[in-house]
Amino acid sequence: MNSRLTIALLAAAGVQTLYGQAPKTPRAPAKPPVGARPAQQAPKAAGNGPAIENVRRLAQMSPEERQKALANLPPERRQAVMKRLQDFQKLPPAERQRSVVEEERLQRLPQQKQNQVRKSLRQFKDLPDDRKAAVGSELDRLNAMPDEDRRARMNSEEFRNRYSPAEQQMMSNISEVTARREE
Question: What are the extents of the domains in the chain?
Answer without folding.
Answer: 110-178
